[in-house]
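Board notes (copied after class):
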Amino acid sequence: MVNVEKQAPLGFEDCRLGAQYGAPEHEVTQEEIQRFAELTGDFNPVHVEPEFARKTPFRGCIAHGMLVQSLAAGMMWQSGLFVGTVVAVQGVQGRFVAPVRPGDRIRATITVSALDPEPGPRRGWVEWHTVVRNQRDEECYDSTWRLLMQKRK
């Protein structure tokens, strides 16, 4: 089982290949999905119109993929690992594996997947493999985040 207690912030040199961390669970609500639609202008009815969504292959409303990615970022932040140590996000590569529905409780598992000590003495690149699963342990989102992190030395 992955520890989901809030962690101490990690500097670059604290990161170990294969080290795995958890993040607090988040329950997705239809209200959040609606607010995300309002924020982004993405009112695809599969997200915000329950009657329409029931007639689709999803058989109900689903969260926007980008909402799930944003929630993954929030859960990563809530883990405590990155507070005061992340300088920049270079990129995110993600794949939406299964729909996230209102009422789903999702959680993120964060694993150090690559380390690059460049660009210099004060910072290094860390790749984090982040997987979001629902309460049935079904994988919903699989991603790699490349973050520039402070070195302590």
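Comment from the instructor: The radius of gyration is 17 Å. Residues 15 and 131 are 18 Å apart (CA to CA).
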